[in-house]
Amino acid sequence: MDSITESKCSSKWVEIFDPDKYYPILETLSSSLTIADFLVLCQVCKKFKRLKECMLRKISNINVWLSDFVDDPTIFRSQLGVFGALLSGPFALNVFELGRQKTLTLDIFVREGANADQLTNYIRETEKYQHVETTGTRRTYCSSGRPGVKLRITRAASPVQAILTLSRTTAHINFITWNKAYSLFPRQTLLDHQFYPLGSLDNGFGSGLSELAHHGWTTRDIVWPDLADKTACKVKGRLRRVGDNSSLVISLDTSSVQRPSAPDSVIEYAQFRVEGRGSPNEDDHDGLQGFQNPRPIGGFRVVPSQSRDPNLRKFLTIQAQKVTSAAVRSIFTTASSEWRTYLTDRLNRWAWLEFYKLESDNRPALPPRALPLVSDVPDFELPQSWDYADDQIPRWYQEWEEKNSVKVKRGERFSM
Hints:
Strand order of the largest sheet: 1-2-5-4-3
CATH superfamily of the domain at 63-212: Beta Polymerase, domain 2
Shape: globular
Radius of gyration: 23 Å
Number of helices: 14
Largest sheet: 5 strands, mixed
Oligomer: single chain
């Protein structure tokens, strides 16, 4: 066979993967391919670029999968945006695995209080779900019109912090907002098909393994951090944020979805760090000082990294401490004491400027020990004219990173 004939045959073979020409064939093949398979194929041949576009389009069309749970996915996603709710659990993992497994459970994380109440009312009144069980902060709902389907709503001070700190393995840390899908450990989860254990071995961890088993994960896929060498345990010790270079972020089709007022930075500048839980002086990184107190933070238990329990060395933990301020509408998370100090200082200054912009009759009297620009502003009902600094977080974070570029460990970039 001459080179010209060989080239033509190769071209014809590649054309089979063209979604515009042979969509039925590609759809059949994609039912057996993982996202990792698509990425590998795209690296084999430049002409497979359309495959990646097809894969991204399949994930982007998330309404198809949501239709198993709600009558109107578009309105439902608008509700997610308005109330700042996140979808996680087996549903989110299944989206990144291109919907290969039928998932009957939808996990929703929403901020406690008015947001959770209003979203729950929508689920009950519009989608006709009934409350059937309460376990801690999680409430389970079922619908007679959808046998076997469950919605699990978890109320938390910070939904993203709850997902980071309560997930039992790295393979569980995927979530979906009204407009984007996030996988925080895509290289390990999607390409290597491996997961690291988080927390400790208990019934909750066992339930998490059962969920993974439904998606084809087995005990063979676990990586024990105490048995892996430093080069193998790549997830450990680095300071990260949601949406960084090590994350996989896929934009979703937002046609007809109502855009919320909160910017994406509320999610994408949630800082966290994966830590080991070994002997004293092990894993002693900047920023851990604020996590050595085992008292509850925002309703979630923060486990000290320097634990004397030898069994805990076999597990990792995710550090993410919430930051609240009158200067921002949203709750952000930090995992570095330096970034926390940098952020709170600027938030305090912002809040005090807004405080003094008000007429003296419209603001409360200062407590005797209040120090403007240093302490928090007094707690009072903020007026509509109050200007919030949520949109400033990305700029401040970039400034902080530039000042601390030597200290911040940057991970391997994950690209598609």
